Amino acid sequence: MKFCSLYSGSSGNSLYVEGSHGKILVDAGLSGIKISTALKQIGSDINTIKGIFVSHDHSDHVKGIGVLSRKYDIPLYMNEGTWNGVKGNIGKVKEDNIRLFENGGLIEVEDLLVKTFSIHHDAADPVGFSITSNKTKVSIVTDTGIMDEVIYDNIKGSDLVVMESNHDVNMLMAGRYPYFLKKRVAGNKGHLSNECAADTVVRLAQEGLEKVVLAHLSEENNFPQLAMETTSNKLREHKLDDCVCVEVAGRFSPSNMYNL
Ligand SMILES: [Zn+2]
Ligand SMILES: [Zn+2]
Questions:
Q1: Which ligand is closest in space to the CA of residue 57?
Q2: What is the distance between the alpha carbons of residues 244 and 46, in angstroms, rounded to a whole number?
Q3: Per residue in 85-110, pLDDT tens?
């Protein structure tokens, strides 16, 4: 399997997952042009994408899904809540390209097996993903206020985890966001802090996780280096820093291409 984060953050998200045959995107929260350009940059091609999986109905995850589906005839996979949230905003999409799933179910796209699970966020019906092909597993959890045992059980045993590391709690609280927004971001249906991300990464590393991509960083309440240090320091405290390779996904530039 191959994995690459094309874009990550509140300015737009799109992740690329490639199996031995199937190629999919998780979210397409930027213009169609930006996403097809990034795919070219990593040596892939939008024409080969067999589906776009949508985590939730916020614009930083769905901005390009309508145009990409129309232009390249790509199926869109999402649950009914997300579909109800986006259908008024993404233009006309071919009925056959709307593939609704139930959370918790398995969806097959060529050799990729995609499992969805509920996360905690102020969207219609947000989900995370774990994607497997030939015993290799990649999991994706962004836009969740909390990490619970259901999420943890879904992502454990992965070869690579994309983990939200949205904000530093102190920066958020001392920052210029209005109180209601601070409460929203830090709340149970907001975004995962650097500290929560680090704790989860340590726990996963204790069970053998070797690759982590920290993702969906806040532009206002975080720095890439701070997210990286919070997780690295905690891994070091547990003497796990030699076992895990950590990268922070770029806002506007593709991450490393992972060959898993
Ligand atoms: Zn988001
Ligand atoms: Zn969101």
A1: 2
A2: 31
A3: 999 999 999 999 999 999 999 999 99
